Amino acid sequence: xxxxxxAYNQFELLQMEIEALRLLxxxxxxxxxxxxxxxxxxxxxxxxxxxxxxxxxxxxxxxSYSAIVxxxxxxxxxxxxxxxxxxxxxxxxxxxxxxxxxLYADREIGAVMPxxxxxxxxxxxxxxxxxxxxxxxxxxxxxxxxxxxxxxxxVMLKRSMLEKVGIFEEKLFLAENVxxxxxxxxxxxxxxxxxxxxxxxxxxxxxxxxxxxxQHALSDRRLLKEKxxxxxxxxxxxxGLLSYITESRETPLRVLEIGCDCGVNLLWVRNHYPNxxxxxxxxxxxxxxxxxxxxxxxxxxxxxxxxxxxGVTFDYIIFGDVLEHLRDPEGTLNYCKEFLKKGGSIxxxxxxxxxxxxxxxxxxGNFTYADQGLLDRTHVHFxxxxxxxxxxxxxxxxxxxxxMTTNGVSQEDREFVSKLMELSExxxxxxxxxxxxxxxxxxxxxxxxx
Length: 450
Description:
16 helices; Spore Coat Polysaccharide Biosynthesis Protein SpsA, Chain A; 7-stranded mixed sheet
């Protein structure tokens, strides 16, 4: 295995990383490739003074992550597994061995990452303490979780996947976008990606972004949209919404997600309920192509009311940030009720148009759409807490529970809401703080909904 470490003004961290790899994983300098991506902290001179070190210097400074990795692979003729590292992540004991073990546990596994312990977490306050916790067995997981995307800062890639997927997309600049593209390409070729539950790295410092800028981010986004026909890429499950699923791990659930995107919520269900039968509906063929590697996915528009699930009924039907995008959300709920089993639940996350930020802007004459958020330009319907309840009532559903999420509340928000409460008939100021509502609903009286 070769280790490629890309550094930018992280000289001291890099030295610590090299020593940790030697002491804790037996990785010698000959197995390392250090890339100085335009550092100004003396790294170049240090590398040039070490005759046994493999290194690359980006003379122009600020090279794209894809070009760096591709060049390193070609220059050093790497035909082995590769561990890509950012110096801000420090190895903990046995982690490399555990990642390698998982990587070769199944031929379909193409890449793995460790669990990342963040600086200041409850489990360990610093690197030394984290090592102690691992050695004493106080941090233990052992649960390997399949992922859609792996971190660009600490990922082990199998040789066979590297050969089959090919070079990293050189039109992309930022590391996180390069890795997302590579992960999707790997998934489409049948590879699985995992977080290793018995391997740990400690994030000892914030990641340095080099000479990245907004222009690179915008360029990457345009390129990804052109390539994959997706406005954004979500690899983070809606765990707040999914927490409504509380059955025991071995339960053979049947779960359907409407608007499943690339399948990250369904993948969460797979990781926590291995016996679950998973189904999805997704209008975007590109996203569905990824989700099909996880679930039985139908490409289509749910509002056309032409879905056929072969007579299957579901314990849960999930609408994760979907109802607000539909022309007829009530009609869709009525239609989907036909596929709920008795006692089954609708789970939905719905943005709150009554949020303090929207009300403040509206009072100042602004109702400006954006690419995402509460005023996502693709939203067709807008909801408040009361409107959600009315929608459920009209569709023969009743709320089992409704929770809210916030995106932080400032003192300015509190003062503004205090004034609003003097004018409003609502008695609960949280209606202005709720960013989203997460709801679980069932058919009235627990009956079949059809």
